[in-house]
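Lab meeting, item 3. Inverse folding demo.
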């Protein structure tokens, strides 16, 4: 079983951002937080099924992230950087926890729209719209720790290391356009890293 999980882990790194992007694409573009409460409620009434599907895809993305991060931790630890391995996996756990809360809020919005007061739903929506720091910080820590470890171990090619480090910096800048670029870059980093790991299979002790 361990060997099968490790073989799948690089694929999980590729699937993780694809699941997340697919979920947001299916859900559509929600209204701005300063829109009238009635418009926010109507969006979730009209897109209830799409939002619930999006949260399911997000759950799959969270699972994929943790599998991928566990493999990265193992490889970094085996390369002689156990502290950075732990930091990287810790970042993934923070991101996964934040994404879980994010998905729960989205599910609640879709599931209760029209059944609760507009003001109550708008309050939950306002919280959700600003709930991004755990995901951003977690991914930044993951990419940065793997990047620093790879500088010495050469686990990843330097262009991918640079991509991850740049993404980590942009993700922690609280300016939306900059953070969005960071999200795009960390998605590319995850896919590229997964491809590299596929080409360099890990050796599972027997």
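The presenter then showed the designed sequence:
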């Amino acid at each position: 079983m361990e060997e099968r999980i490790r073989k799948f882990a690089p694929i999980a790194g590729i699937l993780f951002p694809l699941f997340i992007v697919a979920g947001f694409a299916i859900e559509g573009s929600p209204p701005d937080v300063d829109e009238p409460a009635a418009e926010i409620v109507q969006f979730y009434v009209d897109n209830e099924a799409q939002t619930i599907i999006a949260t399911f895809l997000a759950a799959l993305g969270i699972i994929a992230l943790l599998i991928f991060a566990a493999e990265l931790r193992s490889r970094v630890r085996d390369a002689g950087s156990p502290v950075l391995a732990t930091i990287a996996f810790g970042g993934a756990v923070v991101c996964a926890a934040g994404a879980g809360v994010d998905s729960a809020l989205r599910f609640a919005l879709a599931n209760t729209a029209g059944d609760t007061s507009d003001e109550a739903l708008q309050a939950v929506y306002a919280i959700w719209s600003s709930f991004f720091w755990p995901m951003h910080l977690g991914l930044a820590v993951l990419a940065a720790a793997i990047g620093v470890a790879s500088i010495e171990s050469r686990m990843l090619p330097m262009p991918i290391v640079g991509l991850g480090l740049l993404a980590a910096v942009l993700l922690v800048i609280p300016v939306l356009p900059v953070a969005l670029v960071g999200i795009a870059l960390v998605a590319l980093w995850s896919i590229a890293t997964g491809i590299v790991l596929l080409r360099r299979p890990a050796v599972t002790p027997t």
